[in-house]
Amino acid sequence: MEPPDIVKTYADTFCRRDFEKCVETFAPDGVVREPSSEEQPVPKDKLMDYLRSFEWMWVAFPDAKWETVALNAISEKLAVWQWIFRGTNSGPMGGKPPTHRKVVLPGCEIIEVANGKIRSVQGYYDLLSFQRQLGT
Description:
Number of strands: 6
Largest sheet: 6 strands, mixed
CATH architecture: Roll
CATH class: Alpha Beta
Strand content: 35-45%
Shape: globular
Strand order of the largest sheet: 2-1-6-5-4-3
Radius of gyration: 15 Å
Number of domains: 1
Number of helices: 5
CATH topology: Nuclear Transport Factor 2, Chain: A
């Protein structure tokens, strides 16, 4: 079973940092839930601000890349996107100087689709592993 095209578009546009197109993949009532978000869930009308809040990642990790490991449909309405974040902390982060350490952080997102749009994204990744790799 193939994941819906809308899920492929979501993953691709996020990886390319094309946040406008990424937001377009969501239904009007679409939401995102993930470990580091202060607001749970993040509604579509706040999704662009939420995505832009990750700009610190590209400052701290100028070589940042999210790579798709797998993108699989698990039912007609659900897909799982497995990804790996890779980057070198060569820029300041949280007011601290760069560590110059490489980070490899796996994660996944469970994506619910209805009527050709994304209804919800539930992201999972290990923040403790991220901090340990940076030596913090």
